[in-house]
Amino acid sequence: MSIHLIGGGRAEQYDGEVYRVFLEEAAARASVSGRSLARIAVLLVGGGEDAPFYAQAYRDQLLRTAPCEPVVMMVPEGEEFASAVLTDADGLLIGGGHTPSYLEAVLPIVDEIRLLVADGLPYAGFSAGAMIASDTAIIGGWQIGGVVICPEETGEDLDELTIVEGLGLVDLAIDVHAAQWGTLSRLVAATEAGLVDGGVAIDEFTVLIVGDGDLRVEGAGSVWRVTPDANGVLVGTLGA
Fold it and tell me: Which of 64, 87, 148, 227 has its CA 20 to 30 A from that of 34?
C-alpha cells in the first residue's frame, strides 16, 4: 500500500486519474475484510454555506473514479477530529483547504493514522492533505525574513515561511499547486535557506505515489524535485 500525494486541481467532470491507484489499493484491502466496496474515510476542514457542496464534490469525484463507499466527515476550522472517523476505513483521504487548520484538526489522531498506514492503509492527501503528510511540513508563509519567496495569496494567512512537524508519513517536504500557483519557489527558498532538506512540489491534477519501490508519478503535470547542492539547489522533474 502507498502514500498518494495529490497537488490539487478540481474540474467538474474530471475522470479521477490521480485517485485511481489509491482506490485500487483500498479495494484490495476491503476484499481482505470481506467488503465488496472500499470504505473511504474523507476528512475535510471547513464550514459555511459552501460546506455541503464541498463535501459532495469529493464524494462525487471518488464515485466517478471507481465504485467505493465515501464516508465524508467535516469539522469547522479550529476544531479537531476524533479517532472514530478512522473506524473500519479501507482508505484515508485528507482533503484540501487551509493547511494550518487541517494539521490542527488531525493532531489528536496522528498516532492512529501512522499506525494504520504502517499496517497497510492507503493514504491520499489532496493539496493540504499532501503538505501535512511530511515529517517536516511546510504549512504556509510567503516570505523569509521579509523577502518574498512566492505569491502572497499562497501564504495560508501566514507571512513568514512556517515549517512544523507533520504526520510523518514521508520524509520529504511537500508543496502543491506548483506550476499553477508559483509555489515551487517557496520550496526552493526553504531548501536553500536550510529549513528543509529538499522535497517535491506537485502540479495540479498530478499525484506522486510513494510505495515500497520507486517513486511513481501519474496525471497531467509534473512533480518538481528540489535537492540541496553545494552551490545552492538543484531542480528537476520526476514526471511530466
Answer: 64
Buried b (16+ CB within 10 A) or exposed e, 88-113: ebbbbbbbbbbbbbbbbbbeebbeeb
- Count of domains for the chain: 1
Determine the Cα–Cα distance for residues 141 and 212; give it in Å rounded to an integer: 32
Quick count: other Cβ atoms within 10 Å of Cβ 227? 14
The answer to whether 100 touches 140, Cβ cutoff 8 Å, is yes
Domain that holds residue 183: 3-239
- Please state, in angstroms and rounded to a whole number, the distance separating the CA atoms of residues 54 and 216: 28
Instruction: Output the pLDDT for position 231.
Output: 86
Strand partners, 126: 6
pLDDT-derived band of residue 105, with 50, 70 and 90 as boundaries?
very high
**Spatial contact of 45 and 76, defined as CB atoms under 8 Å apart:** yes
Dist CA 132 CA 59 (whole Å): 22
pLDDT at 47: 78
Q: pTM higher than 0.70 for the full model?
A: yes
Residue 218, C-alpha cell as written in the block: 501519474
- pLDDT surpassing 70 at residue 88: yes
Q: How far apart are CA 49 and CA 40, in angstroms?
A: 24
For 48-74, write each residue's pLDDT tens digit.
778 888 899 999 999 999 999 999 999
